[in-house]
Write a structure and sequence with these properties.
The protein has helices spanning 2-36, 110-123, 137-147; strands spanning 41-46, 49-57, 63-67, 89-94, 129-133. The protein has 154 residues and is α/β, with parallel strands linked by helices. The termini are far apart.
């Protein structure tokens, strides 16, 4: 009986959910695209992981790395980035498994993720940087600072 219910109900539920998401996208896609267009989006593959990030400010300036809370992405910094001194280079990443960054590597050990972020910074030719983090991003930020103190400006 349960199998018949699931067999009948699941497709109906999936169709309703798809219609709900289509309506949501129809209402909010334009606003999303307008916000997205205000930022310089970049993608970089480092050691097999694709990272998505926002790269704003002075390309020659000291770097400030922004780590978002979970389960968000770079987008959580959309109101902050325009307010920060653009003499700095501002990088807001989608952390591994979030936003437009890869989730194919399932190792989310804090030390591994912090090391992968350092590898991303290496791939961007960034040696030292400031770290700004929020909520769960602060855990990764703390591990990043602890494991790689020579890379951190503050």
């Amino acid at each position: 009986m349960v199998a018949v219910f699931v067999w009948v109900y699941a497709p109906i539920h999936a169709r309703k959910l798809s219609q709900k998401y289509a309506k949501f996208r129809a209402v909010f896609q334009g606003k999303h695209d307008a916000i997205d267009a205000q930022f310089n989006h970049q993608d970089r593959v480092v050691n097999g992981l694709q990272w998505h990030y926002i790269d704003e400010g002075n390309p020659e300036g000291k770097v400030t790395l922004f780590l978002h809370r979970l389960p968000e992405g770079w987008y959580s910094w959309r109101y902050v980035l325009p307010q920060v001194d653009h003499n700095f280079r501002l990088i807001a990443i989608d952390m591994k498994g979030y936003g437009r960054s890869d989730l194919k590597d399932g190792n989310y050990d804090w030390h591994v993720v912090a090391g992968q972020i350092v590898e991303l910074m290496n791939g961007l030719d960034i040696v030292k940087f400031y770290v700004v983090s929020h909520d769960w991003g602060s855990i990764i930020g703390s591990v990043l600072v602890s494991d790689h103190p020579g890379r951190i400006l503050g």
